[in-house]
Amino acid sequence: MALGKPIVSTCLDGIPELLSGRGAVVRPGQRDKLAKMIGQLITNTELAGRLGELARNFMLTYPRWNEQSRKMLTIVEEISGHNI
Predict the structure, then answer these.
(1) 2 inside domain
(2) Would 3 be classed as within a structural domain?
(3) Residues 54, 22: contact at Cβ < 8 Å?
(4) Rounded-to-integer distance, Cα 17 and Cα 3, Å
(5) pTM > 0.90
(6) Hey, what's the torsion of the CAs at 75, 79, 83, 84, to 10 degrees?
(7) Parent domain of 42
(8) Shortest CA distance to 72 belongs to which of 29, 37, 32, 80?
(9) How confident is the model over 41-69, as pLDDT tens digits?
């Protein structure tokens, strides 16, 4: 997503929420739908470009690991009363 490429993925473990309006979601085992979606992205460069741009813009504001880990450490420190 951060590279601005259109994403096609499955509908497992929070992926649909992450891709909501920014990528394509196909249920596991639906090979025909997967092939159709990939074909659409290959032939419809406007759709592929739009999804890629939306994905990249989303990732530019997505929390980074170092930011999230600092937040978690702060919470643990507050709860435990110790600095880590």
Answers:
(1) no
(2) no
(3) yes
(4) 19
(5) no
(6) -60
(7) 8-80
(8) 80
(9) 999 999 999 999 999 999 998 888 888 89
